């Protein structure tokens, strides 16, 4: 028997701002993306009856989206409202909860919004995220052991995770580099991408170390911008202006980290649990996936996620990517817009937005076969994971 | 013990963590341990994450462990840290993992699985555990 949520909803609206050094408030960015998404879906503002909000890093550091976005947008007919944060897994989760709400009859057109503006004029991208660490308060208690060891920023846990994978499985620096270079090749075909200059593997190795084993080109961009997505009932979607992108499968996985022997958070992520759930719901397996949009805050995240979705065995991610199959012309096109490494960093909205573009067939020169599209999100140092399986075909 | 300039951001002991820092000052690696299920835990926290008991004691750990993983930091986040330096997670023989730095070893000689033992470094009013390779005879 088919899963009750399989194919009941579709993505009917997509709105995006320009990405990068766009110096506007998060409300302003969000409003632009929302207006675009509503027009894209052929709806009026009052048709929106669900609003799910995800603030980026500025939700923590100040200036991020709040529930006040409802009033900024003037939404009056909400039957569903929440401010969600499961880090980089939130975007996929918003679409999941929207789908559930639609199925339950709680809402019809659910708007899922992400906006962030960490970049300030005159500051570096690194300062936008790692800035607090430059001048930390004297931390209280054992939580302060991190800063006292010089363990700063998001780069550190991902470098430590990549190092462990390398030690356990023989993963090479080149494997990470091949991911970075392949995604840049895709970005050259994406007008929204912030980084469109082609790079070579030599450029990758020559880029400065951030924290070994991560080079600068292993790390995602920092972007200001917004993305808004509208989820609607599948039967409505057929009559709306854009080609519907149907939601066939969804899953989450959050295995946690005990911080002691036994936890393998570095090399075995929640993607494995999410994959089982989503594949079963969609009635597909890894061999059916025609393109991947994988959360790529770091090159290593792509590699370990591919393993956990069963494209190859645990530990074999390195050899799996070695033949450039993720890059343009390859057998498993992945992060076809350039991803967070080269296009724009909108947390989980980066893979989701590109999944929608591909699902609609709007990828232009970077369009790939889009029968079954895997979209993943993860965050919190590989702690939280959610995914969607999308398709232009009704379930 | 080594006298070091108090320039790095050292933690300020709080009530929950004081036995850890007092232990370090006395040259012992003190950890919380669950009275009910015997699980060692780190950092200091009221409840055991295995059995949710709130009964605990403080015991001295062996001070021995292995390099779980490490990175070599090249980014200047804080002026007190001279790059490159190692950021290392040591998995103690008792199970818990500790963020720390390895000392008495060159960065290029560190490897995952390396056997290490605790040493204590004093920074002004706080003593912190660091680790050095075990030199087996």
TrEMBL record, chain A:
Q: Which InterPro entries match?
A: Thiolase, Thiolase-like, Thiolase_C_2
Transmembrane ranges, per UniProt, are: none
- GO MF annotations, alphabetized: acyltransferase activity, transferring groups other than amino-acyl groups
The segment(s) forming the Thiolase C-terminal domain are 267-391
**Coiled-coil residues:** none
Give the record's keywords alphabetically. Answer: Transferase
Q: Which domain of life is it from?
A: Bacteria
Q: Which PANTHER family match?
A: ACETYL-COA C-ACETYLTRANSFERASE, NON-SPECIFIC LIPID-TRANSFER PROTEIN-LIKE 2
User: Could you tell me what this protein is called?
Assistant: Acetyl-CoA acetyltransferase
Automatic annotation (TrEMBL), chain B:
What SUPFAM superfamilies does its record include? Nucleic acid-binding proteins
Top-rank taxon? Bacteria
Protein name, per record? DNA-binding protein
A family per Pfam: OB_ChsH2_C
Q: Where is the ChsH2 rubredoxin-like zinc ribbon domain?
A: 21-55
Q: Where are the transmembrane segments?
A: none
Question: What are the ChsH2 C-terminal OB-fold domain coordinates in residue numbering?
Answer: 58-121
């Amino acid at each position: 028997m088919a899963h009750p949520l399989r194919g009941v909803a579709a993505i009917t609206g997509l709105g995006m701002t320009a990405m990068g050094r766009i110096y506007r408030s998060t409300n302003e960015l969000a409003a632009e993306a929302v207006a675009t998404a509503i027009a894209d879906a052929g709806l009026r503002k009052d048709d929106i009856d669900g609003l799910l909000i995800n603030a980026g890093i500025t939700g923590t550091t100040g200036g991020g989206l709040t529930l006040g976005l409802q009033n900024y947008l003037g939404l009056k007919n909400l039957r569903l409202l929440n401010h969600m944060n499961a880090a980089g897994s939130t975007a996929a989760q918003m679409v999941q909860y929207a789908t559930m709400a639609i199925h339950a009859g709680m809402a019809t057109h659910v708007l899922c919004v992400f906006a962030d503006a960490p970049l300030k004029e005159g500051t570096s991208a690194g300062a936008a995220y790692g800035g607090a660490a430059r001048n930390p308060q004297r931390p209280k208690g054992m939580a302060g052991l991190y800063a006292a060891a010089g363990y700063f920023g998001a780069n550190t846990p991902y470098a430590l995770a990549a190092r462990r994978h390398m030690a356990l499985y023989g993963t090479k620096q080149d494997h990470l580099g091949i991911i970075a270079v392949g995604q840049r090749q895709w970005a050259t075909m994406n007008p929204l991408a912030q980084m469109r200059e082609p790079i070579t593997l030599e450029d990758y190795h020559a880029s400065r170390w951030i924290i070994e084993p991560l080079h600068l080109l292993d790390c995602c961009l920092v972007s200001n911008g917004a993305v808004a997505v509208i989820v609607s009932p599948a039967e409505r979607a057929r009559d709306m202006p854009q080609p519907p992108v149907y939601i066939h499968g969804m899953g989450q996985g959050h295995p946690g980290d005990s911080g002691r022997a036994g936890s393998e958070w570095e090399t075995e992520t929640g993607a494995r649990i999410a994959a089982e759930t989503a594949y079963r719901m969609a009635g597909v397996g890894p061999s059916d996936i025609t393109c991947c949009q994988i959360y790529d805050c770091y090159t290593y995240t792509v590699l370990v996620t591919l393993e956990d979705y069963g494209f190859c065995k645990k530990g074999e991610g390195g050899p799996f990517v070695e033949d450039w199959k993720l890059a343009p012309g390859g057998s498993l096109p992945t992060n076809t817009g350039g991803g967070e490494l080269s296009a724009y960093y909108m947390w989980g909205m980066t893979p989701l937005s590109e999944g929608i573009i591909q699902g609609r067939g709007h990828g232009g020169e970077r369009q790939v076969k889009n029968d079954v599209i895997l979209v993943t999100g993860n965050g919190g140092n590989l702690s939280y994971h959610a995914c969607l399986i999308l398709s232009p075909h009704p379930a | 013990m080594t006298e070091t300039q108090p320039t790095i951001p050292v933690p300020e002991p709080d009530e929950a963590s004081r036995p850890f820092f007092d232990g370090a000052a006395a040259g012992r690696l003190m950890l919380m341990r669950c009275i009910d299920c015997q699980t060692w835990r780190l950092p200091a926290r009221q409840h055991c994450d295995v059995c949710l008991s709130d009964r605990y004691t403080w015991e001295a750990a062996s001070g021995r462990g292995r390099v779980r993983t490490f990175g070599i930091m090249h980014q200047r986040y804080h002026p007190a840290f001279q790059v490159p330096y190692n950021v290392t997670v040591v998995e103690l023989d008792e199970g818990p993992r500790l963020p720390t730095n390895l000392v008495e070893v060159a960065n290029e000689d560190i490897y995952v699985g390396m056997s290490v033992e605790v040493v204590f470094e004093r920074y002004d009013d706080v003593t912190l555990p660091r680790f050095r390779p075990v030199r087996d005879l």
